[in-house]
Design a protein that fits this description.
With about 260 residues, the protein is mainly α. About 70% of the residues lie in helices and about 0% in strands. The longest helix has 19 residues.
Length: about 260
């Protein structure tokens, strides 16, 4: 029903353009309605219409909202470098928000995956800078907190362990407090395991708690034990491995997307 309303709005503005000629407001209105429609029904053909009207709107005004619209299109198409260019232009024009900085971090993480499977140090450091700017505007938002943790975990791997993701562990604690689901808990277990490798006993105990919570919701942990075989030390790993672990997790206990673009 809502998607149809946005389609009706888009059709109405397109009729206005046909009858009275285009303007920044009408072309931008078509693009905005189209983006809302796309996010509801994921019809990729709508993105081409949105992109066309954003280009037409840009002829009338150098408005940062046009670049922001382009960034949404590029993110939806997984065109990460183009999304970065658009978002950095938005920021240069003086428009910033939690979502804008979060989306820039998300784009750099996506570009890192595109270039080197997710572990490109330059992209990841750019992503950390962007996500810290997002958190500086509002540290309570779950999406940038989770992205912060994921980016720091990736940078740890990219630097072959030289970077210790202590701030990422702080972020995942906040996320786990309100979203204790599979990707969050498993990320928390990995981050606390890494911090524990530097001799942090509290992190070691925290890792054990994350693993137990994973197990309670049916997440397999044998892969984790293979990744970090020496982290838990004298904590009772055997009891974790011997418990009955379901092979899958119900859909309602998962986050639909591991990453958030905000």
């Amino acid at each position: 029903f809502v998607a149809r309303e946005f389609r009706a709005a888009r059709d109405s503005f397109e009729d206005c353009i046909m009858n009275q000629g285009g303007s920044f407001e009408t072309h931008f209105a078509v693009a905005s309605a189209g983006l809302h429609e796309y996010h509801l029904n994921h019809d990729s053909q709508i993105l081409d219409i949105v992109e066309e009207h954003l280009r037409l709107a840009a002829r009338f005004a150098n408005d940062p909202r046009v670049s922001l619209g382009f960034s949404e299109v590029h993110l939806s198409k997984m065109q990460y470098q183009l999304a970065i260019d658009a978002l950095e232009k938005v920021i240069d024009q003086g428009l910033e928000s939690v979502a804008i900085w979060n989306n820039l971090a998300y784009s750099y993480l996506g570009l890192s995956r595109e270039i080197s499977g997710g572990f490109h140090c330059h992209c990841l450091r750019k992503a950390i800078y962007a996500i810290e700017q997002s958190l500086g505007l509002d540290s309570s938002r779950i999406e940038p907190r989770f992205n912060h943790a994921i980016i720091e975990l990736a940078l740890h791997r990219a630097t072959q362990g030289d970077f210790v993701p202590e701030n990422g562990l702080k972020s995942i604690r906040i996320v786990a407090g309100s979203r204790p689901v599979e990707p969050v808990l498993f990320c928390g277990a990995c981050l606390s395991a890494i911090v524990a490798q530097n001799g942090n006993q509290d992190a070691k105990s925290e890792c054990f708690r994350y693993l137990k919570r994973c197990q309670e919701i049916g997440v397999r942990i044998d892969n984790f034990i293979e990744l970090y075989p020496n982290v838990l030390g004298d904590l009772p790993v055997e009891s974790l491995m011997n418990d009955t672990i379901p092979s899958s997790v119900s859909d309602d206990s998962k986050i639909n997307r591991v990453m958030f673009s905000g």
